[in-house]
Structure formats: structure tokens, C-alpha cells
């Protein structure tokens, strides 16, 4: 099998369509189909399910994809190393991040990085903690932002301690926003919660303080959570990073006991990063580590 075969397989897997893969790679749909069929004949098993609704990975294809990603990433690393030997900073870095990093940190990181390394491309993947962990383990992204508690067995470099605050509808509590909110004051309130894959640190804090919250609202993104709180459907806990430039009128209180999440940058093996990836990884640690 050739690198083109691997590229065809990955592109079809990513987009679920022979036609879309053909458009992206500049090939004909029949060439895409022929490449996949030849690959399956050589492997001795099917890697894709074909149907009228689209194309999906077989179980064999699912298990094969991380290895194909590794081969393609190794090829990219090789050409980046060659460019580096020639005194050039080129290549591509694929970055995974969760919502509040994408809105509050990533634009500044990308702008400062592009000023120094204009020929290195950056590709961004936004998702939940679970998404970023999956992308790192399967070679979809090179580096990813996670909280330390959500990283599990993935090596992570801590960058920033992000305090958790209590967010409530405007005027709900008769106190100034510079006052502290004690955990006991929250026990009888309806909560708006997010899934554990999105706010594992908050879920951990609630469990550690025996706060069995009542919630009828289980959302994924930060802005939806704040919107529901602003409109009186409950209260929530939220990292301070999220609360920057929020377009809703709410009150925020520091929490007692003190609570926070630690945000970090993760990669599967920091000793074997491609040159462009290593350059961005070091740029982030040098310029954005504050812990």
C-alpha cells in the first residue's frame, strides 16, 4: 500500500463519502473506489461499509485508522524535519481544544505563533474533553488542551489554574458580587449542568462536597448553560475563563471552599514530536504557562 492509499482511506473515513474524498484529494470517485478496493484486497478484509446513506468504518477499519494516522503523521514529520534541516520552519500542527480555550486563548496563541512562524499551518479541532482525549490517542491531533483531571493517562503539562465561580440569575441573591458563596447556600437550588465529558472538574467538585444537584437541563456548550441561568432556569458552576465577555446578565460569586480546574497542554509523546509540533508546543509553554 502507498501513502496515497492511506490518505484516501483517512479522507473517506473523515468525510463518510467517496465523492467528498475525491473533491478534497483532486481525484475521481472511481479512483477513490479503486484505491479502497485494492486496499481491502491486499488486507484481506473490508474497512468500509457502503450504503445509500454514505460510508462508515467497519470494526476492522476502526481499529486500523489509528495506525494509518500514525503513518501519515510520520510522513509529515519526515518532511518537516527535512525542511528544518534546510533552515525552514514549515509543516502543519493539528490542535484539539475545548470551548473556553477556543474562545479565550486560542486566537491569541495562533496570532502570536503565526507572526513568528508564518509558514506553519494550524488546524483546529474543537470538542469536549472526551473528544480531545480520543483525538490525541488516535493521532487525529498532535497536541490538545485538557484539564489535568480529564487527561487520565495522557501526559499533560499544566499551564493555568482556572478558578470555578458560581453563576446565578441577576439579583437572585441579596449580596454583593465581591462576597463569597458558601457551598451550603447552593444545596436547595436547581442547577443547569453539563455532561461530565464537558465539565469533569465541576462534576468532581460537586461529588467531593456531597452536593447532589437537581437538574432538568443537561447541555454541552458553555454559552447555552449561561443563557439558561440568565433566564432563571437554575444556577451553575463555571470556570472563570468561560465568563470573559459573556453577553448575558448574571451574577458571579467566588466559591467557598475554593475550587478550580488546572488547564494544560497534552501530547502523547513529547520526545517524538514533529518539528512544527514541537515548535508550537514550546511556544505555548514559554508564553502561556502561568502556574
What does the model show?
This protein has 291 residues and is an alpha/beta fold. Among the domains are: 1-64, Orthogonal Bundle (Arc Repressor Mutant, subunit A); 159-262, D-Maltodextrin-Binding Protein, domain 2 (3-Layer(aba) Sandwich), CATH 3.40.190.290. The chain is 43% helix and 25% strand. β8, α9 and β9 (214-219) form a beta-alpha-beta unit. α1 (3-15) crosses α4 and α2 packs across α3. The longest helix is centred in the N-terminal third of the chain and has 27 residues, at 59-85. The termini are far apart. The mean pLDDT is 86. This is LysR family transcriptional regulator. Keywords: DNA-binding, Transcription, Transcription regulation. InterPro entries: HTH-type_LysR_regulators, LysR_HTH_N, LysR_subst-bd, WH-like_DNA-bd_sf, WH_DNA-bd_sf. Belongs to the LysR transcriptional regulatory family.
As a percent range, the share of helical residues equals 40-55%
Indicate the low-confidence ranges by residue numbers.
none
- CATH-defined architecture of the domain at 159-262: 3-Layer(aba) Sandwich
Major sheet size, sense and barrel closure: 8 strands, mixed
Average pLDDT works out at 86
Radius of gyration over all CA atoms, rounded: 23 Å
CATH topology of the domain at 159-262: D-Maltodextrin-Binding Protein, domain 2
Number of strands: 12
User: What structural category do the secondary elements indicate?
Assistant: alpha/beta
At the first level of CATH, the class of the domain at 159-262 is Alpha Beta
Global outline: globular
First-last Cα distance: 47 Å
Number of helices: 11
Strand content range:
25-35%
Which sequence of SSEs, written as H and E, runs from N to C? HHHEEHEHHEHEHEEEHEHEEEH
Protein name: LysR family transcriptional regulator
Family: Belongs to the LysR transcriptional regulatory family.
Domain HTH lysR-type: 1-58
Pfam family, one: LysR_substrate
Amino acid at each position: 500500500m502507498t501513502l496515497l492509499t492511506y490518505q484516501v482511506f483517512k479522507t473517506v473515513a473523515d468525510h463518510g463519502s467517496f465523492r467528498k474524498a475525491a473533491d478534497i484529494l483532486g481525484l475521481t470517485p472511481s479512483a477513490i473506489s479503486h484505491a479502497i478496493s485494492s486496499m481491502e484486497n491486499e488486507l484481506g478484509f473490508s474497512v468500509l461499509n457502503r450504503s445509500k446513506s454514505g460510508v462508515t468504518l467497519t470494526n476492522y477499519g476502526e481499529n486500523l485508522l489509528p495506525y494509518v494516522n500514525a503513518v501519515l503523521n510520520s510522513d509529515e514529520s519526515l518532511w518537516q524535519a527535512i525542511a528544518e534541516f534546510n533552515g525552514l520552519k514549515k509543516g502543519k500542527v493539528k490542535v484539539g481544544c475545548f470551548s473556553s480555550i477556543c474562545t479565550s486563548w486560542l486566537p491569541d496563541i495562533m496570532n502570536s505563533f503565526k507572526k513568528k512562524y508564518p509558514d506553519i499551518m494550524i488546524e483546529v479541532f474543537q470538542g469536549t474533553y472526551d473528544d480531545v482525549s480520543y483525538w490525541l490517542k488516535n493521532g487525529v491531533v498532535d497536541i490538545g488542551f485538557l484539564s489535568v483531571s480529564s487527561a487520565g493517562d495522557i501526559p499533560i503539562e499544566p499551564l493555568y489554574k482556572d478558578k470555578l465561580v458560581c453563576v446565578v440569575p441577576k439579583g437572585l441573591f441579596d449580596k454583593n458580587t465581591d462576597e463569597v458563596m458558601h457551598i451550603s447556600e447552593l444545596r436547595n437550588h436547581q442547577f443547569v449542568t453539563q455532561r461530565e465529558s464537558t465539565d469533569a472538574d465541576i462534576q468532581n467538585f460537586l461529588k467531593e462536597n456531597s452536593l447532589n444537584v437537581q437538574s432538568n437541563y443537561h447541555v454541552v456548550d458553555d454559552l447555552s448553560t449561561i443563557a439558561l441561568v440568565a433566564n432563571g432556569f437554575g444556577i451553575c458552576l463555571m470556570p472563570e475563563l468561560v465568563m470573559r465577555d459573556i453577553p448575558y446578565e448574571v451574577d458571579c460569586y467566588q466559591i467557598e471552599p475554593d475550587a478550580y480546574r488546572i488547564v494544560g497542554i497534552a501530547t502523547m509523546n513529547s520526545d517524538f514530536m514533529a518539528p512544527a509540533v514541537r515548535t508550537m508546543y514550546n511556544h505555548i509553554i514559554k508564553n502561556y504557562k502561568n502556574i
